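Tokens in:
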């Protein structure tokens, strides 16, 4: 099989993913130590090999999914949506965030839900566009109900993931031209509500420092309040993950070439995961950090380009939505590492230590490449047709 047929889709996206996965292997190997020794019966080498296997499996998943006609995903989107709701409801009832599966380990239903929801919303918007119903109030409300069903089930256990899911799916509505007047009004209201909720969590947490009996509306509200409080009132002398990430970035400077020379990863339990971007900067300097940011930006703009070239609304909206979701998650993770945002728990796509999150994001990339391959085939067919017409014209002259 030719390499071109094996790696179907956009070649630049493949190159970006390859570079991100190589960075991931180096960064995880460099930063996994303390986490491994904090786990019973775990060793750095064993966890690294598990990560390597996940990365390899993700390559296979992307190659397989990219060979499927993306239109099939539309047919199964409804089933996937309801299956996601069931899994999320079970997790909520168990007051947990993940199942533990053999070999794979932790399985987070929210990771597959955010991919499935975007595909499903893209399908519904495409149907509305076909029926010329995008400006109708009923369409707008129906889509909000679908999005809200997932968001409300994720929210009690994971505010940042719920916010990411909502924003990514909500942007698909904007891309599809769904009642933009209402869209912007609700968007502004949503920002105010989110900020208000976090501020309430902040003040309740402050109150709980002096009064242990302070009640929280949601079980994890204290956690969110603590994170906002720590971000708003930094304690430079505290040996926290956030402070160590800042020290790692400061140590990296502008251009530091010392892969494997990290000091702060030896002190951070989440150096391989939430704060891996800080470790990359510590070892490669701000230049290395900017390269990572550039790779995600290139990926996002290639997705937008594919979306604009796709002739079908479903394919265009799916690529734009999934590309936006991955890019937003990367921006959030990098912003946390440099101290622009409070801790969210969001991983750095295709770089943080692998598991179900890595695999499901890889599956999303496979869908993107499926649409990209369809665009390439359509362009190739158009070029052949144009050549045939040109040759026929030459024959008649």
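Residues out:
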């Amino acid at each position: 099989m030719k390499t071109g047929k094996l790696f179907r889709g956009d070649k630049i996206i493949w190159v970006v993913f390859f570079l991100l996965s190589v960075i991931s292997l180096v960064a995880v190997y460099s930063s996994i130590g303390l986490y491994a020794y904090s786990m019973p019966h775990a060793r750095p080498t064993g966890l690294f090999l598990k990560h390597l296997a996940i990365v390899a499996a993700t390559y296979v998943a992307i190659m397989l999914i990219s060979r499927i006609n993306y239109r099939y995903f539309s047919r199964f989107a409804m089933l996937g949506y309801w299956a996601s709701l069931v899994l999320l409801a079970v997790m909520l009832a168990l007051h947990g965030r993940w199942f533990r599966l053999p070999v794979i380990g932790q399985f987070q239903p929210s990771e597959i839900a955010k991919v499935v929801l975007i595909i499903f919303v893209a399908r519904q918007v495409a149907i509305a566009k076909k029926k010329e119903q995008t400006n109708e109030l009923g369409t707008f409300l129906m889509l909000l109900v679908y999005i809200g069903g997932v968001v409300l089930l994720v929210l009690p256990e994971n505010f940042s993931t719920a916010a990411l899911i909502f924003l990514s799916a909500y942007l698909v509505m904007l891309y599809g031209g769904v009642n933009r007047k209402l869209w912007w009004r609700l968007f502004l209201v949503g920002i105010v509500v989110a900020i208000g909720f976090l501020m309430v969590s902040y003040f309740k947490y402050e109150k709980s420092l002096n009064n242990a009996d302070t009640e929280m509306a949601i079980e994890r509200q204290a956690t969110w309040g603590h994170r906002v409080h720590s971000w708003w009132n930094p304690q430079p002398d505290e040996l926290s993950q956030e402070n160590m990430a800042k020290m790692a970035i400061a140590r990296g400077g502008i251009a530091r070439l010392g892969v494997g020379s990290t000091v702060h990863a030896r002190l951070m339990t989440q150096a391989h995961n939430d704060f891996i971007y800080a470790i990359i900067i510590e070892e490669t300097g701000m230049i290395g950090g900017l390269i990572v940011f550039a790779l995600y930006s290139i990926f996002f703009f290639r997705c937008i380009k594919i979306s604009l070239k796709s002739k079908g609304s479903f394919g265009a909206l799916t690529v734009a939505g999934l590309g936006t979701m991955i890019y937003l998650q990367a921006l959030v993770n990098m912003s946390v590492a440099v101290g622009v945002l409070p801790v969210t728990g969001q991983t750095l796509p295709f770089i943080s230590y692998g598991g179900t999150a890595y695999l499901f994001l890889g599956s999303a990339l496979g869908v993107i490449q499926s649409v990209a391959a369809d665009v390439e085939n359509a362009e190739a067919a158009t070029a052949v047709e144009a050549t045939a017409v040109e040759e026929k014209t030459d024959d008649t002259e």
